[in-house]
Design brief:
heterodimer, A: 2 domains, binds adenosine-5'-triphosphate, binds magnesium ion, cell inner membrane (chain A), ATP binding (chain A), transport (chain A), P-loop_NTPase (chain A), ABC_transporter_ATP-bind (chain A)
């Protein structure tokens, strides 16, 4: 794989707060995410997962070290890195469809094309009937789905997702997992996916990372072989593979032992 | 300032109203005391009736009082005389009883023309207050040097009672409309600027981040996020500004204020035409309430998400 298009986290440390009472959120982190990887990041609450995602998104600048994409340093947010926020961040002054179309609108895509795209993604996340509602009329899980549709519609190279399926019921969650896998297989996008569910991490990821508690540090980093681009195995089949169960167990114990 | 109307709201739907802590739907057949308890409009009508009765008692000639009213008409005119003043102010009528010459309304204008003249001044003053106050607020919210250097002057201006500097404006801009519009502008723009700054500082960081991650340019962030996000605060600012401008306009119209409802109220008072003064006061008060309701309705229509997201 060509290294040029990789996302490289190089010697990054992150502190918060004033100098004399600063909190370290991330201890020195080095990480290379290759194009096309589906990286799942798990770890206990408050360990720094969101912090790492926000650094990559360009919302905050690292206290130390640097992050580069294709060799150039990230200095702010950009349309190449779409973000699904941990708590839904939608615009209440627009209806659901306009929220989904927003990225395309910023890119100057024509209105008809936008409508077509938003309809497709709203259908995917099951919000077709709510296209013309205001976002505050949606439930928490529906808002989360709307956010996912918005990012997918804007078609970024990197998709950064912060516990996107946390608020969903098991059935919807499973359906969206499969949709996301489908998109990933078809488009070969690079995905960073934060989750609290070990099962989800091992099931979705082509690579699984575990972060230790504060200050966060990546303590586990292994490829997961279960969903590869280009092939799709039934979900139940994957979940019953001995190798799947074995990896899931090792990820679980690594989270437990990191405490 | 306009009285905040939160307690005086009309609910045409009559649906349950959590703010008043009770259902507004009451059967027509319910006994009066139940309706008073449950329906604010019944209560208000009764209060108005009581007020009018007291007014009537105070202004009617009583035999036991030597056929004189309790309060002399000069101080408190009777209800019919106020009504007559209202009619006179809206019609062409003889200049005095038994005189042939006829005049229009009061001081050459109908009452509604006085009101319209005042509304026009307010409208122009408020228009400039928004056109200047909003961008100034945006600028102050985003450029530190500007906010640090300009803010003290805005607070200074805000603390001045407009009567304090009307004299200066007359010296600068003459006694006609220009100085009045300046006064209303100066009264109205600080609340708008301050509301804009408050609005910008209340924007959630991630709402900006989300737009940037979707590829928004600086300008697109402003138009798609900043402006709509501050709209609720801005409308509140305009509401405060309008209320302040309305109370200021009487001060503005003390000098050369005809046509103008404030000028009419003042001039009629100095000429001891008390019924006309009271008519003006009622018109001024009702107009203020109507204007405020209009802005509240705009708020509901333009920013339905207010308080929900
Ligand atoms: N803006 C900030 N200012 C100060 N401290 C912060 C800030 N953001 C995060 N932190 C701290 O950094 C640590 C890591 O936070 P982070 O949000 O990255 O955790 P997380 O792994 O995403 O947790 P969760 O799974 O609960 O979402 C926490 O201790 C948090 O208090
Ligand atoms: Mg988090």
């Amino acid at each position: 794989m060509s290294r040029d298009k990789s996302l490289v986290v190089d010697g990054v440390r992150q502190f918060f707060g004033p100098k004399n009472s600063r909190v370290q959120a991330l201890s020195r982190t080095d990480l290379v995410i290759e194009p096309g990887q589906f990286v799942c990041l798990a770890g206990p609450s408050g360990c720094g997962k969101t912090t790492l995602l926000r650094l990559i998104a360009g919302f905050i600048n690292p206290s130390e070290g640097q992050i580069t994409v294709s060799g150039s340093e990230i200095i702010g947010p950009g349309p190449d890195r779409g973000v699904v926020f941990q708590s839904p961040t939608l615009y209440p002054w627009m209806d659901v469809a306009s929220n989904v179309e927003l990225g395309l609108k910023f890119q100057g895509v024509s209105k008809d094309q936008r409508r077509a795209d938003s309809e497709r993604y709203l259908q995917m996340v099951g919000l077709t009937d709510f296209a013309h509602r205001r976002t505050y009329e949606l439930s928490g899980g529906m808002q989360q789905r709307c956010q996912i549709a918005r990012v997918l519609a804007s078609d970024p190279e990197f998709i950064l997702m912060d516990e996107p399926f946390g608020a969903l019921d098991a059935l919807t969650r499973e359906r969206l997992q499969n949709e996301l896998l489908d998109i990933w297989r078809k488009t070969g996008k690079t995905i960073l996916f934060i989750t609290h569910s070990v099962d989800e991490a091992v099931f979705l990821g082509s690579r699984v990372l575990v972060m230790s508690p504060r200050p966060g540090k990546i303590v586990f980093d292994e490829p997961a072989i279960f969903s590869k681009p280009g092939e799709s195995i039934a979900a139940e089949e994957i979940r019953s593979l001995p190798a799947f169960l074995e990896l899931r167990e090792r990820v679980r114990s690594s989270i437990q032992h990191s405490h | 300032m306009v009285i905040p109307l939160d307690g005086l709201e009309y609910h045409p739907s009559g649906g349950p109203d959590d703010r008043h802590g009770g259902p507004a739907v009451v059967a027509k057949s319910a006994p009066l005391w139940v309706r008073v308890r449950k329906n604010h409009w019944t209560t208000r009508l009764i209060a108005l009736a009581a007020f009018l009765v007291v007014w009537w008692i105070l202004t009617t000639p009583w035999a036991w009082n030597g056929d004189k009213p309790i309060m002399l008409p000069l101080y408190l005119p009777s209800i019919p005389s106020v009504w007559n003043a209202f009619i006179r102010a809206n019609t062409i009528h003889p200049i005095a009883e038994g005189v042939d010459r006829e005049v229009v309304g009061e001081y050459g204008y109908y009452l509604w023309q006085h009101l319209l003249a005042t509304l026009q001044r307010i409208g122009i003053g408020l228009f400039f207050a928004i056109v200047i106050g909003l961008p100034l607020g945006l600028l102050m919210a985003s450029v530190k040097i500007i906010s640090v250097s300009v803010e003290p002057y805005i607070n200074f201006l805000r603390s001045l009672p407009p009567l304090g500097y009307i004299g200066l404006l007359i010296v600068w801009f003459g006694i006609d409309n220009t100085s009045k519009i300046w006064l209303l502008f100066l009264a109205a723009f600080p609340p708008i600027t301050i509301a804009t700054i408050a609005g910008v500082s209340g924007i959630k960081e991630d709402q900006i981040h989300a737009a940037q991650s979707l590829g928004a340019s600086r300008l697109q962030v402003v138009s798609s996020v900043t402006v709509p996000a501050i709209a609720p605060d801005l409308i509140t600012g305009i509401r405060v500004a309008l209320g302040f401008a309305w109370t200021t306009v009487v001060a503005a119209e003390l000098n050369n204020g005809i046509p103008g409802i404030g000028g009419l109220a003042y001039l009629s008072g100095t000429e001891l035409k008390t019924p006309l003064t009271i008519t003006c006061i009622i018109v001024i008060g009702i107009t203020a309430i109507v204007l405020d309701s209009i802005i509240k309705a705009m708020e509901r229509v333009l920013t339905p998400w207010r308080g929900k997201a």
